[in-house]
Amino acid sequence: MPILKRVNFLFGIHNHQPVGNFGFVIEDAYEKSYKPFIEILEKHPNVKMAIHFTGWLLDELTKRYPDYIKRVRMLVKNGQLEIFTGGFYEPILPVIPENDRIDQIKKLSKRVEELFGVKPRGMWLAERVWEPQIAKEIALSNVEYVVVDDSHFKNAGHYEDELTGYYMTEEEGYTVKVFPISKDLRYLIPFEDVEKTITFLKSMATSNGKNALVMFDDGEKFGVWPGTYDQVYTKGWLDEFFTALESNSEWLNMISFSEYVDNYSAIGRTYLPISSYSEMMEWALPTRARANFENLIETLKKENKYEPVEMFLKGGIWRTFLSKYTESNLMHKKMLYIHDLIQKENIKDQKILDEYWMGQCNDPYWHGVFGGLYLPHLRAAVYEHLIKAEMMIDPANKIEIERFDYDKDGFDEIIMKNRKIEIVIDPDYGGRVLEIDLRDKGYNLINSLTRRYEVYHEFISKAITRDQLDKIGKAKTIHDVVLTREEGLQQYLHTDWYERFSFIDHFFGDSATLKGYLSSTYPEQGDFVNQPYEIVDKAKLIRHGHIWIGTDWLPIDIEKEFSLKSNVLELSYRIKNNSDRNVPLWFGSEITCNLMSGDGGDRYFDWGEKNPGSYTGEFEAQNVKVISEYEKVHVEVETDEPVKYWMYPIYTVSYSEGGFEKVYQGTSLTPMWKFMLSSNDTKEIKLRLKV
């Protein structure tokens, strides 16, 4: 009689919404994914699996849907569900301070025990971003095992047939068990026919029955991802899948992670390299490198050479996002700045710590096939919580000025703050201002994003709409289909040659137009926009630069001095002509203001005429009000005399799980001065922001 071969299947889902996400998004995910998934699971009592909720989402679900939490608790009590822990606010664990890693994990473990009556033994690692040093903090957080991707193991030299269980790893002698998630199963479930998954699982069955295959992925792919609700629930894929698991129980063992660990030993010891899932490592690469890497993979696949060498191909690392996107780095370094304040003041207040930890939520710090960094409301949430934490630690009742390398680029920045306003000045790049915090509002007025070329822009012409996808009649993984939310987005594909911040010093020529300025194709006459200024005094900068007048390259100095007075930020310019001739100048100081919506009726610019942030045009004014009634933001841009302004919206075209979309990233507002400057003469200009 032949020996029956068996295999263990460890299944789990990870449910997450980023801090600050819209309520309607949570409601949509609940109705399309979280609730129906549990309803189907309840009908299949022999299916065992794991589930992970990030802490912020768990609190939202508890508040909005208490009956849902009770149902999950009952499944846990019955032994059908195993709850995983993780960082409470879903941080990228390796890039936050060590003590925060432990404290965030312990906070979620405590919440899980309060809600579900069990201590979690396993852990979900945000975006599966692994660096060897975090094994110690995971172990110190009382976690026994963690799930990562099979790509982590392959990059460490393990072959596919070696990834049939868990391994031990350690850091400084602190051990943790690591399970590999099967990429094959991630792409099969729930996109392909159920039978294909069953066939794949059966192919891994052995006579000793020890082999384990892991599928642990986003819960939102079961109903929220494009086309999946119809596939998973309307057409009954999930019910069919669970039925197939139960009907094949003779050889297919549905087992929890804790049961597997308790009954089977580790395959061996391993040391995993810095890694994440393979797609993330492609997204993290700098744009040119990413394009070449993806072309290489495509070429190898066409030549049927990819699979044998896949384990030796590795993209970037997650931290590259911090160098790829200045905006990501600035949020990260503000977080570290506040961490230093917490350590310095020995802060133990849980309200402060929670505000600070919420600012570590990973989503706005990176961008791949999800909106992430490109979604201004997620960046705004990070700034809101970090600003609030800082305000509680350091209210700055008097003006404070610090000078140090804030963004860790090797050059000093200047931080100025009082109780109302905080700014970060970057002398090395045009003397620009990186951040304008309205401290009592928890609002960074700039919070914009540079319009960059992204590799996926090459595919915008091939994108299809959601309606067209529905007509295809089959769900596809978001890695395999190119969608667009609207047509005609090519007209918004502009690439900036300088980064989007404030008080950027421009010199325009006679041929400059608003259209060229908007598209970042105008001729810049000076060398001040992205070149270094010297620090002369506390908050006084100077650059000895030049401008083009015809074919002449003439020396010009700009001195700019920032000052704070209660609710007023003032910038004083002194522009000096160092040439031996009279020079006609057209100068502008560009300010970026993000009101979070370009067309909201309660968000507008008012210079005697109200217009939304999407307005494009020129006008003359001495005072421009910048209003967001929803956030209670009221800022006035003021000059000593009426001047001409150029104004236009900043739109990016990005790709997310919903397809290509146009996103409002703020409004460019540039007051301008035209004047003749005699040899060795100086022009003084004052510009004020009142909050």
From TrEMBL:
The keyword Membrane appears for this protein: no
GO biological process: carbohydrate metabolic process
Gene3D superfamilies for this protein: 2.70.98.10, 3.20.110.20
Domain (Glycoside hydrolase family 57 N-terminal) ranges: 11-270
Keyword Mitochondrion belongs to the record: no
Alphabetized InterPro entries for the sequence: A-amylase/a-glucTrfase_C (IPR015179), A-amylase/a-glucTrfase_central (IPR015178), Gal_mutarotase_sf_dom (IPR011013), GH-type_carb-bd (IPR014718), GH57_Enzymes (IPR052046), Glyco_hydro/deAcase_b/a-brl (IPR011330), Glyco_hydro_57/38_cen_sf (IPR028995), Glyco_hydro_57_N (IPR004300)
Keywords attached to this entry: Carbohydrate metabolism
Residues of the Alpha-amylase/4-alpha-glucanotransferase C-terminal domain: 405-682
Pfam families: AmyA-A_glucT_m (PF09094), AmyA-gluTrfs_C (PF09095), Glyco_hydro_57 (PF03065)
Molecular-function GO terms, alphabetical: carbohydrate binding; catalytic activity
Highest rank taxon of the organism: Bacteria
Location of the Alpha-amylase/4-alpha-glucanotransferase central domain: 316-392
Annotated family: Belongs to the glycosyl hydrolase 57 family.
Name of the protein this chain belongs to: DUF1926 domain-containing protein
Organism of provenance: Mesoaciditoga lauensis
